[in-house]
């Protein structure tokens, strides 16, 4: 089964790059993390699985990510949520299983809340709901706060490459989409969560808080004690594929 690719034109002129494997549904849709793209190890592994099993899959790059157009610094949770819903409508019609990694786990929840009739299940890897407010915000150093106040942007150092921009607009917008609070999250589909115990970016207790908050009773939380944030080792990929097969 071959993978086709193209661009989805958005009303403001932006173009979202996507790749699709035709096959049996529900369509497995990959939602990547913050500053990542659709050519990562987990995304490629899911596409390969879809080709081998005759299953439908879609992966894409958010605005300002990977092969899509736009400046990363102009992206927000609102924007990336809208990108996801547009891809679901145009490229992955019908029922879908959302597979979200890190920020993609938050986006998967937001997309499910927006289109509950479309999503049959979710598989989340190190999900980072509310990360702008609960994970990133508290770790911004004084010099970062000063840069945000003066220029509206802070170049955040990264263990995965060059520093990248964090904008005040991203932080303010992220607070609008908070889902972790006093009330249960009204998501009732089956959910599988894979979380590394040695994850330096998303503490396992944060992912567990999401698991507890989901209204669904069919939630399985798997703690990979020696796992990191990416969970891209062969054994981690095997767990991911198994989780997708279970709910898809």
Automatic annotation (TrEMBL):
Protein's name in the database: Alpha/beta hydrolase
Question: Which keywords belong to this entry?
Answer: Hydrolase
Lineage runs: Bacteria, Pseudomonadati, Pseudomonadota, Alphaproteobacteria, Caulobacterales
Q: Where is the Serine aminopeptidase S33 domain?
A: 42-135
Entry-linked Gene3D superfamilies: alpha/beta hydrolase
Q: Does the keyword Transmembrane apply?
A: no
Q: Which GO terms describe its molecular function?
A: hydrolase activity
PANTHER family the record matches: MYCOPHENOLIC ACID ACYL-GLUCURONIDE ESTERASE, MITOCHONDRIAL (PTHR16138), PALMITOYL-PROTEIN THIOESTERASE ABHD10, MITOCHONDRIAL (PTHR16138:SF7)
